[in-house]
Amino acid sequence: MAKINIGVIGYGYWGPNMVRNFFEAPGSQVTMVSDLRAERLPLVQSRYPTVRVTQKASELIEDSHVDAVIISTPVSSHYELALQALRAGKHVLVEKPLTATLEQAQLLIEEAERRKRVLMVDHTFIYTGAVCKAHDLIASGELGDVYYYDSVRVNLGLFQHDVSVLWDLAVHDLSIMDYILPMKPVAVSATSAAHVKGVPEDVAYLTLLFESNVIAHVHVNWLAPVKIRRTLIGGSRKMIVYDDLEPSEKIKIYDKGITLNNDAENVYKLLVGYRTGDMVAPQIEGTEALRTEAIHFLKCIAEGKQPLTDGQAGLQVVRILEAATLSIQEKGKPVELKTL
Amino acid sequence: MAKINIGVIGYGYWGPNMVRNFFEAPGSQVTMVSDLRAERLPLVQSRYPTVRVTQKASELIEDSHVDAVIISTPVSSHYELALQALRAGKHVLVEKPLTATLEQAQLLIEEAERRKRVLMVDHTFIYTGAVCKAHDLIASGELGDVYYYDSVRVNLGLFQHDVSVLWDLAVHDLSIMDYILPMKPVAVSATSAAHVKGVPEDVAYLTLLFESNVIAHVHVNWLAPVKIRRTLIGGSRKMIVYDDLEPSEKIKIYDKGITLNNDAENVYKLLVGYRTGDMVAPQIEGTEALRTEAIHFLKCIAEGKQPLTDGQAGLQVVRILEAATLSIQEKGKPVELKTL
Amino acid sequence: MAKINIGVIGYGYWGPNMVRNFFEAPGSQVTMVSDLRAERLPLVQSRYPTVRVTQKASELIEDSHVDAVIISTPVSSHYELALQALRAGKHVLVEKPLTATLEQAQLLIEEAERRKRVLMVDHTFIYTGAVCKAHDLIASGELGDVYYYDSVRVNLGLFQHDVSVLWDLAVHDLSIMDYILPMKPVAVSATSAAHVKGVPEDVAYLTLLFESNVIAHVHVNWLAPVKIRRTLIGGSRKMIVYDDLEPSEKIKIYDKGITLNNDAENVYKLLVGYRTGDMVAPQIEGTEALRTEAIHFLKCIAEGKQPLTDGQAGLQVVRILEAATLSIQEKGKPVELKTL
Amino acid sequence: MAKINIGVIGYGYWGPNMVRNFFEAPGSQVTMVSDLRAERLPLVQSRYPTVRVTQKASELIEDSHVDAVIISTPVSSHYELALQALRAGKHVLVEKPLTATLEQAQLLIEEAERRKRVLMVDHTFIYTGAVCKAHDLIASGELGDVYYYDSVRVNLGLFQHDVSVLWDLAVHDLSIMDYILPMKPVAVSATSAAHVKGVPEDVAYLTLLFESNVIAHVHVNWLAPVKIRRTLIGGSRKMIVYDDLEPSEKIKIYDKGITLNNDAENVYKLLVGYRTGDMVAPQIEGTEALRTEAIHFLKCIAEGKQPLTDGQAGLQVVRILEAATLSIQEKGKPVELKTL
């Protein structure tokens, strides 16, 4: 089978990882890399002498030897570049978040459908063994009914210029939630603060409200002295702690919960009992997520399939981010998540 | 000097700690203990044969040998018992939260002033070495400007019947914040969820908004599989991690932060730099907080002084809890904190 | 059934725990406490007004109302006091280590047999849920063949006057090993160092050698800046990490190991493969060990049974400590463990 | 200045790191790579198209375009290859341990001196910021007198064929000790065990004895269920915990220790008091050690200087390993460290 030719736009923080993974993935070869900044291009050439480079993204997009385009640039340029690439008949993989607005996401989805091209968003965590395991534990019913989802993603830096900490870090949590929770949120309440002049918010809190009594919450912070990547997922039967910084025990499953005691006669006795059993840290598949993701993208192209993190998955995250941004302006006032 | 005679109302979860500490504190003796539940009284007598017991709180309150009354009962009874005790001329120490409503707190403060009696609320954490150290680091300017206060206080149980997790656990964080932050919040946005029929909310999130760009947030949860007691405090010069579960290094001070780079010419270069230096875990005074608190209460009585955690401190916490409860009903809509 | 009357000799560091547990255990009552130091006796009386006190141990031993004697004094006095008590017809529980010499241990065992009295040594850890679980995992074959036992027990203080860190701390590890390992060591090699004038060794290392390829090692240290209580137990099928400082997950069972690959043709290929599976932290019984131990002692007295930690268990630990002391003098030269 | 041309022998586990670092270091270029295994050579060529490859080490050694040779092969071949390279007039950097015997190390040192070539051993940890900091804390007197050095280096795998865990892992600790301790050991006592047929020992314990009361101990294990890299260094004034797995706080300095109390009158009072102060985790330089090491090697070549980890440093580690191997055969009997 012929190899799929990949062009990568943007060789900044994340682009080199894209190039490396599509370089090493079976079934693809990186043909071309572009970056506006001339000084980034020799870096590509010294590491990958066979790859062509250009400062002009449009040159890469129009190149007839490029089958698929990876867009690894600031969010503000995602829509224009992705649209151009789809119109040029390319398959497209866009870094998260998919676009800067809900409307842009909708237009990209329509364009991809019209052109019958793969549109995928780089929600990397969906391709990790840990998130996959959490998904399965919920889907199989092992957790019981989901009660809450609580995530903390904080550390010092890297500040972004064009987006706030919410659009930068919360994307990860929102994409994970969208993938593993069986229900969709109906409203969002968010608050945040900015402490550096001329830079967007560096700390934000976001609550997702559901029709049922499920609640989800995300805390993101660029100004924290320590790095924390911890998610608690509570269920009626079991509970999960997902700590992405643990080298091997990323997922811990606790056989813990409460039991109800109907001793209505004694109003002073607690009606709630506690149940604690074993904790299990299942073995987690350790393949680099971006490698799994690259292979998935290539497979979707080859077989004409819809990716796991397709345009709709990207749109759903942007929908929540847009609503959260509104809620922040109103100091936490809940904003409904309209279905289009 | 004559010993101050202490009467303790309520011998449930926390009451025994009160009895033990006032039994051992120099300057006081526990004279009487009351509990509605007859079966609790023999426990007192077997441990403290010299202490008188009764089922009737009023008997204790009216006893002429009792100088000061500790109220260690469910929140709903705090106001009535404290009022009765103040009117009987006793000094009063009330378990947290001070009262169930802002109005009740106000009335107790007025009664204590009228009777010239000490009214103190049991905000225990204020009397720990760790909180004292955090307070001093902010007050001395070592942290610089405070940027945020973020606290997580979660574990499995104990469910309360008469109050939600907010009124049970968040009290600790709100009292600590009130003590160590140099500014007062102006509004609160809160969300929560309840998962057990007939029992109040078990998970809650609360954001405090300030006039400036300071932000404070509390996450409390009775249904978490692991116990976490961690507070992050960010400042312009340094940052603190306060982990109450660390056996000895409860406070860690990070010489970390950001520096601004005014290289306005290059829009692609980050304007924000990072500064990381040493981390210091100062030695923390390890005396049991309740012992320090007991001694402080006795000293305030002896010297006619206002306690550190006086009625106003108790009222301020109740004010925020009341507003948060309103905000929860409105799914996070911000509620202003009226000054009386 | 009549309660067993307990006399406790020594009210220093550990004695108060003995008094408290036998005070609260069903089936016993503490009748008398003795301590050479007059100033310790009022402490007993203020907490336990019904208990008689004396400075003379012999008075307690001879008292006709005392059925069993707990010896909670420095090691050097264990033998004399225990012998006297056995001769007076009392059952005896001695703090660890049982005696200062192997010969003394042997004589106590003989005296107890002659008098048909219970002789028990306070190897407290044997009565914890964690050690019990580790024992069961080995006994049931779940670990496979035992490969090694490695324990680290270090912290700052408490320095002892009459015994080295080996006789103070390593006792715990040796008693646990003796209980859970299915084979007995045949020799010991040990090294140590002393850094404080006039005080015995504060750091020691001890290797136990076996007939097979099992190896056991203990590291004890009174001068460590951090507290560590961690034991690794390697087996052919599974491995255990037992961390006594973990609040709830004290025992972790790793489904890890190696697999042999008989690819003899390729000398460059590794013959050893690695197997990693789930980790399980089983729920551990949390009763205070000393309570379980107290109840066990009372049961052995009532039913005339041999305790789990009988004289022989105490003797085996002293045998190893004596040999290790010799080895230390010879800078690690192995010393055989004679069977008597 | 002309670049120094580097030839790397061995492209297995560690060789690729050597190639990468000398490829990126200023002042050198990798000219040639050799490996006995033909299948390893295309890997080199795909990543570094400009590098020549060969199966024959001698071809690389004799190549006139090679100035310095890196030997990254199994220990058994170190001596022959290094000797050949020195005789061909090349500078040599040998992976640890330097040689398989003390005599070989001595001969290499002599050859290097005769040829006036740089002979350096790859004791990587000496070039880390953490070890550098520990060295400075001892050298500056901040720790006071060194009391003990205790290191644990355990994990599951990688089993080696030609050397035991002692020769594989303990090298790291011995090289660090040799660098940071101001005194030299005089004897060694070691024990070990092997659990896999046909493979050397997988667990070993090694005590170093000194003229003074300093003691050093190393525990290495290839069969541990968890990864531990922790060193405790006790001093009379302060103590260090060096945990190489900590992402940022690798070195913690504890202001802890003991104080002597000369209250000789009261034999029951402890003579030893405890002092605990702040803990400081200094910021550690984070450059990859191998990069620092490569630059140091190049500098020594350019300036004709003796490297920090020269032949003598390599010899000293081999001396201890050889003695430890003897001690293991005698089950821990101490073996003196002869000075040549």
How are the SSEs placed, and which strands pair?
Four copies of one chain form a homotetramer.
Chain A: E1 4-9, H1 15-24, E2 28-34, H2 41-47, E3 52-54, H3 57-62, E4 68-71, H4 78-87, E5 91-95, H5 102-115, E6 119-122, H6 129-139, E7 146-156, H7 165-180, E8 187-193, E9 203-209, E10 215-221, E11 223-235, E12 239-243, E13 251-260, E14 272-281, H8 289-303, H9 311-329, E15 335-336
Parallel strand pairs in A: 1-2, 1-4, 2-3, 4-5, 5-6, 7-10
Antiparallel strand pairs in A: 7-11, 8-9, 8-15, 9-10, 11-12, 12-13, 13-14
Model description:
4 copies of one chain form a homotetramer. Chain A is of the alpha/beta class and 340 residues long. The first copy, chain A, folds into 2 domains: 4-124 and 289-309, NAD(P)-binding Rossmann-like Domain (Rossmann fold); 126-285 and 320-336, Dihydrodipicolinate Reductase, domain 2. Chain A is 32% helix and 30% strand. Chain A has 9 helices and 15 strands. The first copy, chain A, has helices at residues 15-24, 41-47, 57-62, 78-87, 102-115, 129-139, 165-180, 289-303, 311-329, and strands spanning 4-9, 28-34, 52-54, 68-71, 91-95, 119-122, 146-156, 187-193, 203-209, 215-221, 223-235, 239-243, 251-260, 272-281, 335-336. In chain A, strands 14-13-12-11-7-10-9-8-15 form a 9-stranded mixed sheet. In chain A, strand 5, helix 5 and strand 6 (119-122) form a beta-alpha-beta unit. The two termini of chain A are 40 Å apart. The model of chain A is unreliable at 264-268 (pLDDT under 50). The B-D interface holds B 248-249, 255, 276-283 and D 248-249, 255, 276-283.
